[in-house]
């Protein structure tokens, strides 16, 4: 049984990955800024006879990161940096405090969490750091400057850290899925329809799925299964990689 900490685990990708890995026998540390929702997920897992605990965690707060790390004695086996937010707007109208907040959550927050648990992984001679990126860590779209800057930065962070700790049994990888049907993406559909002046159906068909040869949303189970593989010894030399689950998008 591995101790797996998932951020942003109260819904969407984070919840799906948490529940999947719990079903595989791992102990899940469910963290989210909304503690009540994190508790619900931990209870759902526990009611199935599986193992989980919940913590409130705002990844933009160093104090909260330190508190959780102290409660866990700095010891986890797997860190899945999933917490994410989105805001769709032209740069001219983009509130700069919101721009900064997105990068704090999806880039600086990742560094905070990783720093807090890295020494424990080294001491245990095992660690897997899996960053949930996006197709937008590899390509760009308009009206998402903060999100795309953070996700592009995440790739650089992952590669650099992987080189720093290459002499240890710790890997650092970034999963880069095309659109996954989550509440975050549902919100984007409406926002993009407004920015582009088109219908929500046109956003789905002409913006989200148009660049993807397979023309389908990525399922959370695909991401969860990839995480499970990265935990195994079969993946011990897979590090510093951007793993695209994109239906052929980036082949074009």
From TrEMBL:
Report the Pfam families cross-referenced here. adh_short (PF00106)
| One function term, GO molecular function aspect | 3-hydroxybutyrate dehydrogenase activity
Top EC group: oxidoreductase
EC number(s) on record?
A: 1.1.1.30
Ordered alphabetically, the record's keywords are: Oxidoreductase
- Protein's UniProt keywords contain Iron-sulfur: no
Name the source's superkingdom. Bacteria
Q: Record's family?
A: Belongs to the short-chain dehydrogenases/reductases (SDR) family.
Recorded protein name is 3-hydroxybutyrate dehydrogenase
Q: What is the lineage of its organism?
A: Bacteria, Pseudomonadati, Pseudomonadota, Gammaproteobacteria, Oceanospirillales
């Amino acid at each position: 049984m591995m101790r797996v900490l998932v951020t942003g685990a109260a819904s969407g990708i984070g919840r799906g990955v948490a529940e999947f890995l719990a079903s595989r026998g791992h102990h899940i540390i469910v963290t989210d800024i909304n503690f009540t929702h994190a508790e619900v997920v931990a209870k759902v897992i526990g009611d199935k006879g599986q193992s989980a605990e919940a913590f409130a965690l705002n990844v933009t707060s160093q104090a909260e990161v330190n508190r959780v790390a102290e409660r866990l004695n700095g010891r986890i086996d797997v860190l899945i940096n999933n917490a994410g937010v989105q805001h769709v707007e032209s740069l001219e109208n983009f509130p700069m405090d919101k721009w900064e907040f997105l990068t704090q959550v999806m880039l600086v927050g990742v560094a905070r969490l990783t720093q807090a648990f890295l020494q424990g992984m080294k001491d245990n001679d095992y660690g897997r750091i899996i960053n949930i990126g996006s197709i937008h860590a590899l390509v760009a779209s308009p009206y998402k400057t903060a999100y795309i800057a953070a996700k592009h930065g995440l790739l650089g962070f992952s590669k650099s850290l992987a080189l720093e700790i290459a002499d240890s049994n710790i890997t650092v990888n970034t999963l880069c899925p095309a659109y996954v049907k989550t509440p975050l993406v549902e919100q984007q559909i409406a926002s993009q329809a407004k920015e582009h002046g088109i219908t929500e159906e046109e956003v789905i068909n002409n913006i989200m799925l148009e660049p993807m040869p397979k023309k389908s949303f990525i399922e959370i189970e695909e991401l969860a299964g990839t995480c499970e593989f990265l935990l195994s010894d079969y993946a011990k030399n897979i590090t510093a990689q951007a793993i695209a689950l994109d239906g052929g998008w980036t082949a074009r």
